[in-house]
C-alpha cells in the first residue's frame, strides 16, 4: 500500500469563517487524501460550525477528498450524548469514534477509531477489529516498539493503522474545562473564552518554564510532535497512514513537507528547516517514539 497523508479534525475553537476557509484551502491546495472533520473537544462549540459544514463537506468532496466525521472525545452530559448519537447514527458518511459511547450508538458496520480512544495492546486492537473498525489512529505516546507490535496484529485482523506525525499531542481529557477555570468562569458560562487561543493556552511551571497547552477540557503538549525523520522507519514496520493534526500556523507547510519527503522530493532535514520557519512558537519533539520523555527531540531512529 502506498503512503497517504490524512488530516485530523481541528481541535481548537476557531472563528467559523476561519474554520471554513481552512478546509477550503485543504480542498483546493493540499495532497491530503483523507480529511477528518467534526467537533471532538466541546459539544458547545459544534453549533458554531453548522452553517459552514455543508459547504465544507461539498468543497472537500468536489476536490476528491475522503471525508470522515469525528465524534466527541469526552461524553459527560445529555448535550454531549445527543451530539454523539446524532453523528454516530447518521447515514451516508463514515465515522471516527473518539469515545466508547459512539461505538454503542453505531449500528454494526465499518468505522474508524480515533487517537482520543485508547489502543495500547493487541487485545484491544482485536476487540476493535471484531467490532468493525477499518482503521485505528494510535495514541501519540506510543513508542516505536509498541507501534511495530500493533502493526503485526493489525495485519492479521485486516485493520489499517494510522500514526500522528505532526501537531500538538493530546495527553489528557477532563470533565472540567481548564480554559474556563483559568478565566474564573464555569464550564456552563464560559462565554467561549477558548476562542482567544487558536492554538491553545500555554501553561507554564511555577519556575516559568513552558510546559503544557490547555484547550478547553483537553491537556496537550507544549511541544509539537514531528516524526518527519521517522517516516521511512514507520513504513518499514507497516505504517502507511500518517496524520497531521491542524494548528493555526504552519499546517500547510507541514502537509507539503511531509508529502515532499514521502515522494523523495526533499530530505527530512530540508523539510525540518522549512517547518521550523513556519510553525507555532514551540519546539518540535519526538521523544515518545524513541521511548523517551515526549517533549524531547532525538535524531537517531531507535533500534529494533
From TrEMBL:
Pfam families the UniProt entry points to: Peptidase_U32
Keywords per UniProt: 4Fe-4S, Iron, Iron-sulfur, Metal-binding, Ubiquinone biosynthesis
Source superkingdom: Bacteria
Residues binding [4Fe-4S] cluster: 42, 177, 190, 194
Cofactor needs: [4Fe-4S] cluster
InterPro entries assigned to the protein according to its UniProt record, in alphabetical order: Peptidase_U32, RNA/ubiquinone_mod_enzymes, UbiV
Metabolic or biological pathway: Cofactor biosynthesis; ubiquinone biosynthesis
UniProt record similarity statement: Belongs to the peptidase U32 family. UbiV subfamily.
Assembly description: Forms a heterodimer with UbiU.
Function: Required for O(2)-independent ubiquinone (coenzyme Q) biosynthesis. Together with UbiU, is essential for the C6-hydroxylation reaction in the oxygen-independent ubiquinone biosynthesis pathway.
Protein name per its UniProtKB record: Ubiquinone biosynthesis protein UbiV
Annotated organism of origin: Maritalea mediterranea
Gene: ubiV
